[in-house]
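Q: I have 502 residues here and want to know how they pack in 3D. Can you give me a structure?
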Amino acid sequence: MPDAKAIVTLVFFLLSIFFILVPVRVYRGLKLDLATAPPLCVLILLASTCIPIEVVWDGIRGTDGIKPFNILILFFGLAYMSISLDLTGILQSAAFWVSNRGGTSGHRLYLYFFLFSVVLAIILGNDPVILSGTAFLVYFTKVAEVKPLSFLIAEFVGCNLGSMVLFVGNPTNVVLCEGFNLGYIDFSAWTLLPFLFSTAVGYAALLGQFHRRIPKTIIAPELDPRSVLIDPTGAIVGSVMILSCLILIIGVSFAGVEVWEIALPFAVAKALWDVAWDLYRSRRGTMPENIELKSRVKGDAPVSTTQERAPGVVRKLREALQRFHWRMLKTTPTFTTAFCRLPFPLLSFTFSQFMLVEALVYRGWTAIFAGWLSHLTINVPATIFSVGFISIVLCALAGTNILSTILVTKLLQQAPQALDDRRMRAASIALAVGSNVGAINAVFSASLAGLLWRTILRQKAIHMRTRDFARWNMGILPIVSFVGLCIVWAEVAVYYGKIHPA
């Protein structure tokens, strides 16, 4: 029977989820949201002695094969290289090229943009595509005088389907690889077919919903891809480095080398290249005319009214930091912009989520939940569809697919009776499908990509209501998840029945 401290631990775990789903501003600039609520709940549990400091440490170093620091270093290293690559203009240039290939056919353009989002998400992950692709689609549909909704939903769906293929596509994939001891090539081998079938039926579902909203003819100006390729040299260097990093990570995975030991040196090398290349061009006077960066570095750094009202010491510190930031933008715009675009709130959020799950483990809740789940994992099909369904629901209710994946992984690891190889593999791949397609959900907070996507749309003066987002996604999610999980069932049946009989 759970004691009082166990109940308090569960309450604060649920409170952290509530404030992720429903952010609340409590005092002036203080807001309880994804970045602040989970670490605050951890601190309260620690101060109230509901959890010892060892639980916090376990949330950083990891347990049961899952290493949070490994996952975050990999994610941030690849994120920096992807954002830096995007700043060269290569992704926008590729989007212009795709637009030109589509001609004036509305349905052909729709298909090409969908495939463009899918392919880029496979290589770079969904976040860089959301960053670059969303802005381009808003621009393109405005110039072509086309309503953007159908194109934007297709991009979002394509990104979250493409992220299923490689381990780098989504942080949840790395959690799965580590938690279930899956090799990176093995992961892709198992998820490739679910991805292909889910993508095919996902596109069919998109057409079924939006066929009347896609114009038969789109008259858009011819776009020169070279006009937006700001830094061809940087684009070549960045592409070579990120592809080399991915290939090397996969190549050395058999040797037991940690992924962060590969990703971190590549990210540092790319950052040093960006700084050196920016300084070289600045001194030679060959820095390209980048309107986005240039507009941010004109003149002196402004002082906001908030800063003017701040106490003297705080105001001076803020002004000094702002002057330093603007000076860095003038001399090393690529490095500074890429660094500032990194999703730093993800650090506190992810570490805190690991700590909160470890708190549930410490207080015995995961053992209780694992017992409940064991009643559903009695055979392969029941395991696949129950784990897949639960992971998708938790994406919407538990505050992002990251927490959903961590929690379900822990429950499977702590099953009262260990699952056999067949059911454990079925569960892990079903969770991979669920955690990726689960982003195509009823709420934006089902994934970090969804939150990022909504932020960019608001910046572009496109306000999508949650109920509209849910309405369009609910016509797609059941189909892609059901088909994807059926393919997992078929794969497990063939592999353990014909290729590797138990």
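Q: Anything worth noting?
A: The first strand starts at residue 24 and ends at 27. The longest helix spans residues 184-210.
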